[in-house]
Amino acid sequence: MNNILVTGGAGYIGSHVVKQLAQDADNRITVLDNFSTGFLNTLKILQSKFYNIYTAEMDLCCWENVADFIKREKFDAVIHFAASLIVPESLKDPLRYYLNNTANTANLVKCCLESGTDKFIFSSTAAVYGEPDIKGLAGVGEDIACNPINPYGRSKNFSEHVIRDAAFACDTFRFVILRYFNVAGADEDGLIGQSTLNATHLIKVAAETALGKRHKMSIFGTDYLTADGTCVRDYIHVDDLASAHIKALEYLENSKEGIFNCGYGHGYSVREVIDTMKRVSGVDFAVEEASRREGDPALLISDSSKIRELMGWKPKHDDLEYICRTALEWEKKL
């Protein structure tokens, strides 16, 4: 049996990965979460369907407790999601991001090395690229130099260096770093989804506005150097992203390390996303134009050829209407 620890597994992306892991009866999954942003009820829903999910309520900042726990449980692999992830918040409170994201990740890696846990999968972000110097709509490859433009991206980039340096110093430690682009949508079975309060993710905000949970929504910046003046992003359905983590575990059975983009390789502008949500919902909801938000790059699109070739990852939901529809249907349930 594979004994797997998932930090932050009660959160949006983590819970979808937990669900896919639990579908394999050979996996024993322990979710470590402090439930500051994750939801205990989400885990209870999954535990009602799967017998192989366990819960450990703990904060990663309690380093001694985390070390004792990992040493005692002897995990085969760690999938690390737990982090702070709001860009505007990181600009206002950067130390929180460096402590929660980078320092806690460093301690978690240390615990793995000391306990003999040799497989580590890290939830990173396309924010590590900053505003890459690419021409036209070409995708960002993993070999492009990282130059994050906000504390969130820098905290994740520092964490990547911690993981890579640890693996360099320890021959038995293996890792995969997954750089997410814009994650959206909900579980295709309607079992779980994004329940984040005061969400900032565009597609969730658009779904909330379509359902009248918000009176209006904003477009932050209309003067970017893009086709319609609004930011362009590569949106990936959460179930496809979750499947990349399953592939990463398989990859580490025979490989030492790897850094991979998780996206579809093409993008949509903010206006295109809003128009799609209006079409899917049948609601012409109110949208206002606002000034740019600090820390937002104009364009971020992935080159995801590496993960497709080396892991055999085959996304199933590369369809903006499907992403918006599953997000909307989940929002109706909340």
Provide a descriptive summary of the structure in words:
The chain has a domain at 2-185 and 235-263: NAD(P)-binding Rossmann-like Domain (Rossmann fold, 3-Layer(aba) Sandwich). The protein contains 11 helices and 14 strands. The strands form 4 sheets. Strands 3-2-1-4-5-6-11 form a 7-stranded parallel beta sheet, with helices on both faces. The model has no long low-confidence stretch (mean pLDDT 95). The longest helix is centred in the first third of the chain and has 22 residues, at 94-115. 46% of the residues are buried. By secondary structure, it is an alpha/beta fold.
In short:
With about 325 residues, the chain is an alpha/beta fold. The chain contains 11 helices and 14 strands. The chain has a domain of about 210 residues: NAD(P)-binding Rossmann-like Domain (Rossmann fold).
Entry keywords:
three-stranded mixed beta sheet; 11 helices; 19% strand; Rossmann fold; 14 strands; 334 residues; globular
Averaged pLDDT: 95
Element pattern in H and E? EHEHEHEHHEHEEHEEEHEEHEEHH
End-to-end separation: 35 Å
Low-confidence stretches: none
Please describe the biggest sheet, giving its number of strands, its sense, and whether it closes into a barrel: 7 strands, parallel
Overall SS class: alpha/beta
Which word captures the global form? globular
Rounded to an integer in angstroms, the radius of gyration calculated over CA atoms is: 19 Å
> What is the CATH class of one domain?
Alpha Beta
